[in-house]
Amino acid sequence: MATLTHATMTVFQAKSSPRQAPSLVTRALDTLHIWRRRARERRRLAELNEYELRDFGASSADRFQELAKPFWRG
Known about the structure:
There is one protein chain. The protein is built from four helices and no strands. The protein has a domain at 26-74. The protein starts with 5 loop residues before the first helix and ends in a 7-residue tail after the last helix. The chain has 74 residues and is mainly α. The longest helix has 24 residues, at 24-47. Helix 2 (24-47) runs antiparallel to helix 4 (60-67). It is elongated, with a radius of gyration of 24 Å.
């Protein structure tokens, strides 16, 4: 029969503990990355021609509606 030492139990308990919530800085950086990605995707959307829009099922109205949104709105 195996004996558990205090050190072994501590390591096991540390691995099974729930994850901590992300820090304020981490959440802020994640939000900035999302905003940058949205801005970049909307710039690319603005560059598509009619054929490319229809290729993935969007219309000009869909494009204008998406481009009217500020970067912080999903």
